[in-house]
Amino acid sequence: MGQHPAGGTSISTPFQPEIQGLRTVAVALVVLYHFWPMHLPGGFVGVDVFFVISGYLITGHLFREAVRDGRVRLGRFWGRRIRRLLPLSFVVLLVTSIAVLAYLPSPAWQQTFRHVIGSAFYVENWLLAADAVDYSAMQESATAVQHFWSLSVEEQFYVVWPLLLMPVVWLVFRSGHGQPERLRRAMLMVLGILASASLLFSVFFTAYDPAQAYFATPTRVWEFAAGALVALVWQGKQYTGGLANVAGWAGVGAIVATAIVYSDATAFPGYAALLPVLGTAAVLLCGGLRPGLGVYWWLSRRPATFGGDISYAVYLWHWPVVVISPFVAAAAETWQVKLLLIAGIVALSWLSKLAVEDPCRRARWIAPLPRTYLVAATGMAAVAAVALAAPGVVTTLKYGESVSTASECYGYRSLVAPGTCTPIEGDAAPNPSVEVIAAQREDRTYEDCQAGMGQAEVTACHLGVEPRAAEQTWALVGDSHATAWLPALDAIARERKIALEVYTRGGCTPNVAERVTQTTGRDLRVVRTCDSSNREVSERIAQSSRIDAVLVAASQIDREWVNADGQDFANPSVEGMTSMWHRWMDSGKDVMVFGEVPRLEQDETDVPTCVAEHRDNVVACSVAVQDAFPWNDNLRRASESVTDERFHFLETKDLFCREDTCHAVIGGVVTYYDGSHVSETYARELAPEIARRFEAFGVLSQG
């Protein structure tokens, strides 16, 4: 095996054109994956290639600086990263924000701009990790800036990596033996330990919670460390003989193979990330220079290096184009238009490099560190200001008068009020605006009352009046559909002096049988935690002497149950519920079950989005009754089988539907904040009607 040294003593790594070619491979995989995910389902591994390259280059740079100067100049290092990366990222965020306001339906604005702010401050990966465990946020579609998650991980690496290595440099040079070899070995030891710890954490956390693990920085640290170890172990020497060339091509093959074989179903990063990471390390270390055969020869050709030169800009621009282009023209989904879009992205990226990246990196006026940091702070503040202010300004300018909340034609009142109300076809703007309703998905008043999906402990949230002032105590049991009724139930409880104990959990229908699921890992544990929580809540309520009535509400779609150990239900999906209810009624409690609400989502478009797209014809967002209710409504079937006088079924269909149609806007109020959860506004408007139905059941005295 021959050696192709990259420079003089220790690590001295000048420009390596083959790395630019490797960047081209990485960004091409990511772009092709995002445009054609079914054809290159594992193209996301291109991000891991970038991580390894960054670890290799940055660690080599920091090592050379430490050998030369005896220290790491932290301020200068961060300043170079800011000048190199932040200006174009701010431009992309601002342009994307404008495009979102121009083309995306307004309900998508709040979610998008929340992530724009997270991207501007380089914490997007942590926002996405948090969303991965939030039941409502999990239902959201990807925003136009979601790709900033990997840039956030990179920036966090740039901040922390030199801080990690500085004590090592200081200790080595303080000992009086500051030769490069001693420093190299010390850094190898520290980074080897860090890489091992991060890889182990990545493996275990990916198995436990793959959705969060994908975005979490600690699960990716070992990938940067892998590149760092290559830089330190081989001291800049690249092997270029025949066997080395085979190893280099094998590395490229490993990267491409994982892009083809892996998919969104692959638990990643974990063990699965080893193959693309080791493949990248092999290419950094081994290759060939022979024309036509050498991997370095191919990666160093001008088309390949050109792609590497613009790879950062391509990565920044491509995802907003992928997300926004279908809203601009339906033809954006065809392969011909996608090819044109990719060509446009390449051209735009080249112009961005010439007009933004290169000038900002070289400009003398920004070179002094105080100015560099001021530019960074100003850019972050500007992006955040646009993200916070623009949606409200655009909405105010764009849309007109809304229905007055005092009107007899407002909300549910319009369905029952005499006179000339036009509850469905009214042409006034919704009040509150559709943007405010959509925001309830992210910012729910009663969110803290709902147990976390993986929360093992069963706790009650207390609403209504204080127990000592209460005339009755009620319990609410159910999933997020039950939580959605809290604006109405809390208002009723406060007015009628009821202490309300809330036992709700996202995605957890109250049933003491065992839920049928095909999930594994953390998702399976969430389901089993739901099962055990249901049994504990059932027992706790049955044994409580203070609870007078129990309210139940839950989604039924795509949920089935089987017998748990010791159970012998003929139909667990039904009897797992009725057995709970009978237990509560046998202990002297009334049971009131809310019927399932209609589902108004159409073609994966939620209600606020549909209303925003059809402001002049909201009837287009209505759904036929037969399509709005799930076929496997176990809750209704269970209710129909109970004849006890303490049992009451609260029909909800007529609260949303008239004749054969269920409506998205009633009396100027958007009824849902997504496709199946009642909006807080409409729920509050329904409080008087729901209270009247409780009175009819005999559980409330006449108000």
TrEMBL record:
Residues 457-691 form the SGNH domain. Keywords: Membrane, Transmembrane, Transmembrane helix. InterPro entries: Acyl_transf_3_dom, Acyltransferase_3, SGNH. GO terms for biological process: lipopolysaccharide biosynthetic process. One of its GO terms (cellular component) is membrane. The chain crosses the membrane at residues 44-64, 85-104, 157-174, 186-208, 214-234, 241-262, 268-289, 310-329, 335-352, 373-394. GO terms for molecular function: acyltransferase activity, transferring groups other than amino-acyl groups. Pfam families: Acyl_transf_3, SGNH. It comes from the Bacteria. Residues 18-351 form the Acyltransferase domain. The keyword Membrane applies. This is Peptidoglycan/LPS O-acetylase OafA/YrhL. The lineage of its organism: Bacteria, Bacillati, Actinomycetota, Actinomycetes, Micrococcales.
